[in-house]
């Protein structure tokens, strides 16, 4: 089967045995460029693309908005913490127009928030702790998206089948309860529609998991924190948002 995230098509059979070495990992094949066509400056080196991208940002944005960037030199006070997928097609700063300094952001496969666990999820836990306890963000938002490869992988996984990747399956299993709910309540729905439902249910599981972090639970209880779910459908150009 073929799944896709982070701008790569990953050709993999999720039912095949776990590879024994790095060289045996699933083959990665570059997608045809989509809106990365903007980067398709013929002959331009990849590093030059980054340099010219910054030059354009510096001229068009940074130099023209000192009122935005000057205060940020002293510190940040973002209102939002955003969890979004690593997928190259759904950068929340671009799609939601979030300005530098507005959103403390974590991106990972399928925009998952795992439950509180000091041994397994220190990266996510530390980001949430810093955002809530130090930066005092007001809103925690988790944003799923259409055609999410991580969600498709979660829905495709068969019970008891060995993992094919070192990390991917274990990570997306965070959304297992959402998968169970979708398969129970929408058993006869076509696979692609189940994926769409799961993209949103997985957000709800992540919002629920956020409440396992003590400072989040406390903030929600005393009204200083709000939990918000979102879904960006880039096929139809629709953004949905809901409060928990
Ligand atoms: Zn995704």
Automatic annotation (TrEMBL):
<dbReference type="InterPro" id="IPR001765">
    <property type="entry name" value="Carbonic_anhydrase"/>
</dbReference>
<dbReference type="InterPro" id="IPR045066">
    <property type="entry name" value="Beta_CA_cladeB"/>
</dbReference>
<keyword id="KW-0479">Metal-binding</keyword>
<dbReference type="GO" id="GO:0008270">
    <property type="term" value="F:zinc ion binding"/>
</dbReference>
<comment type="similarity">
    <text>Belongs to the beta-class carbonic anhydrase family.</text>
</comment>
<keyword id="KW-0862">Zinc</keyword>
<dbReference type="Pfam" id="PF00484">
    <property type="entry name" value="Pro_CA"/>
</dbReference>
<comment type="function">
    <text>Reversible hydration of carbon dioxide.</text>
</comment>
<feature type="binding site">
    <location>
        <position position="148"/>
    </location>
    <ligand>
        <name>Zn(2+)</name>
    </ligand>
</feature>
<dbReference type="GO" id="GO:0004089">
    <property type="term" value="F:carbonate dehydratase activity"/>
</dbReference>
<dbReference type="InterPro" id="IPR036874">
    <property type="entry name" value="Carbonic_anhydrase_sf"/>
</dbReference>
<feature type="binding site">
    <location>
        <position position="87"/>
    </location>
    <ligand>
        <name>Zn(2+)</name>
    </ligand>
</feature>
<feature type="binding site">
    <location>
        <position position="145"/>
    </location>
    <ligand>
        <name>Zn(2+)</name>
    </ligand>
</feature>
<protein>
    <recommendedName>
        <fullName>Carbonic anhydrase</fullName>
        <ecNumber>4.2.1.1</ecNumber>
    </recommendedName>
</protein>
<keyword id="KW-0456">Lyase</keyword>
<feature type="binding site">
    <location>
        <position position="85"/>
    </location>
    <ligand>
        <name>Zn(2+)</name>
    </ligand>
</feature>
């Amino acid at each position: 089967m073929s799944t896709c995230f982070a701008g790569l098509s990953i050709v993999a059979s999720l039912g095949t045995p776990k590879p024994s070495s790095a060289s045996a990992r699933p083959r990665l094949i570059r997608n045809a460029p989509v809106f990365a066509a903007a980067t398709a400056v013929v002959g331009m080196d990849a590093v030059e693309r980054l340099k010219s991208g910054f030059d354009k940002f510096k001229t068009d944005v940074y130099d023209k908005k000192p009122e935005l960037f000057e205060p940020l030199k002293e510190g940040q006070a973002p209102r939002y913490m955003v969890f979004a997928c690593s997928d190259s097609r759904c950068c929340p700063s671009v799609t939601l127009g979030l300005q530098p300094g507005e959103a403390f952001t974590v991106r990972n496969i399928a925009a998952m928030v795992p439950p509180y666990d000091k041994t397994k999820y220190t990266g996510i836990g530390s980001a949430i702790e810093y955002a809530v306890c130090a930066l005092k963000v007001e809103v925690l938002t988790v944003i799923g998206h259409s055609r999410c490869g991580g969600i498709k992988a979660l829905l495709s996984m068969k019970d008891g089948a060995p993992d094919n990747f070192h990390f991917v399956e274990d990570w997306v299993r965070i959304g297992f309860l959402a998968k169970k709910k979708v398969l129970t309540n929408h058993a006869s729905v076509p696979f692609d529609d189940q994926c769409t439902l799961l993209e949103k249910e997985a957000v709800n599981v992540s919002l629920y998991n956020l409440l396992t972090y003590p400072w989040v639970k406390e903030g929600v209880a005393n009204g200083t924190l709000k939990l918000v779910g979102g879904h960006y459908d880039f096929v139809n150009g629709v953004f949905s948002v809901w409060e928990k």
